[in-house]
Each structure stands twice: as C-alpha cells, then as structure tokens.
Design a protein that fits this description.
By secondary structure, the protein is mainly β. The protein has three helices and 55 strands.
Amino acid sequence: MNTKRRRLFALLLGLVLALSFVMLAACDNGEEEELQGPVYTIGLSAQVLELERYGRGELTATVYKDGVATIENVTWSSANTAVATVSGGVVVAVGEGSTQITAAAQGQTAACTVTVTDEGIVPQLVVADTTIPLTYRADDPGYYDILAEVKFYDYDTSDAVISYEAVTSDTSDPSVIELSPEGRVTAKKMGRATVLVSATWNGYTCTEVPVSVVVYDDIEVRLLDEEDVALTPGETSALYTWEGNVEGNAFTKSETFGAKVLKKTEEVADATVEWQTSDAAVAEVKDGVVTAKAEGTAEIWCEYTEGNFVYESLRRTVVVSYPWVDLTESAAAEYLFANKDAADVLKDYVSDTTHMTDAVYAEDGDENILSAGKIDTATLAGGANVLLFKDNDAYGYILPVTVVTKTIGDASEFKAWREANHGDNNTGFYAYGKGEYVLLRTDITIDEANWGAYRNGSYSGYFDGKEVGFLGTFDGGGNTITVKSAGTGGLFGDLGNGSVIKNLGVVAQLTSTGGSRPAALAALAEGATIDNCYIQAKTGGENSYGGVVIAGVASVTMTNCVIDSTPGN
C-alpha cells in the first residue's frame, strides 16, 4: 500500500472512531436523564390550625408531579398524639398544646402547626324530652322517638355515635317498653322504665342522660263545662274580682267545671277526682267550682288516681281581671279641669258614683292622681287622655277626657293670655302654648282697635323650620269671638306646626289702613289644623284686603269649616 493510500485509510479510521465516541457520549447522557425521574412536591391547605379541645379541623394535601397535581397515597402523622391525632387529613384536638401534623407522599413531606386550647368546654349530649308519657292500647300502642344530639360550639356533630339502653332498677322495668337502636320507644304494658342515652364524638364520651318513660293505661280524664260538654285545648275562661251587673255589663267571679273518667272509652262510674289550681291566690277550686281571688292567671285541672298512676285532665287557663266598664266608645270626651271632683267628671255617664272615688289613674300610668276626691291634672298632658276611675273593692270606669290646661271666660282674659305670649312684631320668633289645651267658655267681644299686632314670626321664609307661634290646641267650645278691628296678626299671631283651632266661631272686621294686611286668625300658618270652625271676615278700609290667614299658608288642614269673606264694614 503506497503512502498516499495509507494516509487516506488513517483519516477514515479517525473519523469513524470520533463518531463512535460522540454516539457513546450521547447514549450516556440519555441514560442519566432517564435515571433522574419526575419531581414531586406536596402542598397543604393550611400551615397553621387552631382548635378547641375536642374540636376538629380538616387538612387537604395536594401532591404535584413535575408541577402538575396528581393522585397519590398520602400518609398522615402527628408529632404528638396527646395534643392532636390525624386520620385522612381530619385533625382531632385531644389535649392542650402544640404539635406538627405531617403529610408524606413520594418521599416528600409538608407540615401544619396545630395549636389546641382548652377553655373547659366539653361536648354536651342534649335530649329534647327527658320525660315521656305513653298510653298503652293493645290495638294501637303509643310510641315516641327520642331526639338526641351532641352539641359543641358550631361544629357539625352529625357523626356522633348515640346509643340507647333500657335499664333495670327498682323504678325501671325494661319489659314495659320496646326500644329500637334508633331510640324509638313503644309501649308494651303499663309501668315505668328508664332509658339511658349515651354518646361519643371525637373520642369524647358525653355525660349520659336518663329518660323517664311512663306507660299509662287507656284512661282519659275529661274536663267538662256546666253543660257537660268536654272542654277543648287552647280556650280560656274570663273571671273578675267582683260579681254583678253595672251599666249593662255583667261580671262574674266564679265558674263550675265537671269531670268524666273514661277507661277504654267506657265511663268509670262514681270516679273520684281531685281538683287542682296552679295559683290559689288568683283562683281557688273546690268540687269543680272555681272562684276568682285576685288579678292574674291560673290553670285549673283535675286528677284521677288508679293504682300508682295519676291521670290528668287538660288544663284550663283562667284569667282573672278587674271589672272595668269601658266608656271610650260610648261617651264623649269630658272636659277635665284642674282639681275637678272625680264624681263630677263621671256623673253624666254613671248611675252610681259612690264606687268611683278610691283612685284615678292615667291609662298609661300607675300613679294615683286622685287627692281628697279631686283629680290632679299636673302630670297629664293637655288634650285627649283616658282615665281609669277605680273602686278598690268593686268595679271601675274607663272614661275618655280632654284635659284643659287653661280656660278663658272674657275678653280681658284672652287679651292677657295673648299679651303674655308674643314676640316683637314681625321680627321675634316666639313659640307659645305647646302642650296646652285652651278652652273658651263663653262668647267674647274684642273692641280694641287694630287688635292682633302681636305676631310671632317673620314674613321672610315663613318659619324656616323653627317652632314659631301658637303650638297647642284652642277649643272654642262652640263659642264665638267677635273682633271689631282685626290687625295683621289676627287672634293668634301665627299658627305653628301641630297647632289646632277647633269648635270656634270668629266674626272679624278686617280694616286695612296704611298698607296693613289684617287677618282673622293669624298672619302665618304652617302645619296647622282648623276644624269645625265658622269664620266671617269682612274687609274694608283703604286697601280693602285681608283674610283668614293673610301672609302665608303651608300644609294647613281645614275640615268642617265655613268661611264667609265679603267686603263690607
């Protein structure tokens, strides 16, 4: 082989060896990548968990394979099972302290710190009824489902294990009942039995609750009215502390009940019952006759005893009340003046006032406002009220009254009242009469020229939300005020919000001089009520204008009124 050929062969051999090394290197790298495998991590739903002792919480572990969630078996463990245990991610608090709950999968772990506190609260077994009465009938034995549950804070305790056991003792015969695992009690014969209810939850055993079961024979005790008709549940009897008839109202303080005992639907002849009352101070009972003793409520029933069993009738509620004669619908509101005799207030409505003078009360009060036979109106608001006139040993009346705080009997009294209640003309904001009820007791005539210069508001912006003018009630009592020369403010200056003018006649000469604007009632009125009034306003003078309310009116209600406004002197 010549030199040239040897060189070519050596070159080719070198290339082949170089390619072989490259391929071997590539194969080695692939094996290393295949040996490295997937990467796993674990995430927990919480890193910190706080629980009350006996409580529980739930952790969720998610296993990721190369960053993608996958399904893997997770092993749970607790660093201190005296503090908390864990199973399937459910953590149960056992004792006070702190521990680590760990989730492990595919060689990876994640931990949650659990802290348990102990406030001394434990799960409670609660039973709805601890005394169960049943009636045994061969063809239809009675039964009852015991309702029991475990309560602990706001935890869901529906997985609590509750069990029922009929116990044997001197006072409990299990053969009296049939008891199912679910707590249904069925009567089998007469007698008494005790069912012990127990429960466990989260490893805690609750305090047992005994349930007393009494199985009665098929005996019924019926409570009867005076016509031997069986009374029905839910009805009541009304009795009174006094008996008699007054003003067409009949009051009774006694009622008679009867009783019937049935055994297996057959009446027991000559059955003896014992009558009972829940409150003898309110109503006593003897041989079925109930007698009211004092205001209040009592229950009346009877009992029949056979052997060791006591059978009870339904309970009748008896309400004992003081006998009030209510006149609020039939009587007109009587005017009530300060220190007026109670008998005088009642005399037009009551045939016998001798029973009326022990005490008088406001409808919403408990203080006797009667002194030496006279009514003290100081604590009463002016206007409509309801009073209770009471004879402590008999009956009383409920009467509507109108409390009068001031009366006016002549023109001088009216003038003095108005002069004492006014502000500066056109500028002062002066409110008067709030809470008052003023009664005019006779016709009056005001002769003074330009009467009514007393005003309480301002023309600008009316009242601007202020309490201005007369704010009470003026009752004309059907009388008339004649004003021979009415000025700007009229009779009342201004009528403020809530004011009432009623039962009043007004005859006013409105004489305008120097640009004045006379008014019959007021210069301004806002939120006022004018009811059952006759107003005659005659205009005249230089400008010849005026009116009932001359400067401004807002939200004024007029009912049953007659207005006569005509020119003339």
